[in-house]
Structure formats: C-alpha cells, structure tokens
Write a sequence for this structure.
C-alpha cells in the first residue's frame, strides 16, 4: 500500500480495522459454537456427578451449564482487544516503510 502512495495513517487504520473485523467474525463464530455445545450438553442432561465430591461441587446430581449475555459480551470484548493489540506491532512496522523501500521489496 505504501508503494502505491497510501499514507501512513491509512495503512495503520486499514490494518487495525481488518484485524478488528476478523476478530469480531471469529469471536462471534466461537460464541455460536460454544453456545451450541452448551445447548447440546443441557439436552443430554449435563455433566453427571459421579462422586460425592462432584455432587457437592455441582450442588446436585448434574452440572447444567448456561451461557450468559455478560459472559459472551465480555469474551467478545477480550477477543477484540487482543486482536487489535496484536496488530499494533505489524502496524508500527508498516508505518516505518517508505514508498521507495516498499517498491524495492520482492514481497
């Protein structure tokens, strides 16, 4: 992008938006998949307590997991934050490339 004249800010913004979009899509996919697994577990009766200790920990004969809105929202927020933070280093490197260096590279 720098080789065809894109400004530094544009390249950084493009990398960050692309990373956030990918993080959001795959974060939502993970949430849907996890919700499906939890739903199937609930339909199958949960995780049975096979010992007295598990009966005590589960507070009953089986553990029936649930998916809360807060947990999903928090998880998506963490995925987005980690995705964006992980893109900052490549974005900093992309900012330092001059158009002449970008044109001279074989990549």
């Amino acid at each position: 992008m720098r080789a065809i004249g894109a400004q530094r800010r544009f390249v950084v913004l493009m990398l960050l938006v692309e990373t956030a979009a990918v993080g959001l899509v795959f974060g939502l996919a993970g949430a849907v998949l996890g919700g499906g697994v939890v739903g199937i577990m609930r339909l199958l009766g949960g995780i049975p307590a096979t010992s007295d200790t598990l009966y005590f920990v589960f507070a009953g004969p089986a553990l029936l997991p649930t998916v809360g809105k807060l947990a999903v929202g928090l998880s998506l927020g963490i995925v987005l934050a980690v995705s964006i933070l992980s893109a900052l280093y490549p974005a900093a490197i992309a900012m330092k490339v001059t158009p002449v260096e970008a044109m001279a590279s074989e990549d």
Summary: The chain is about 70% helix and 5% strand.
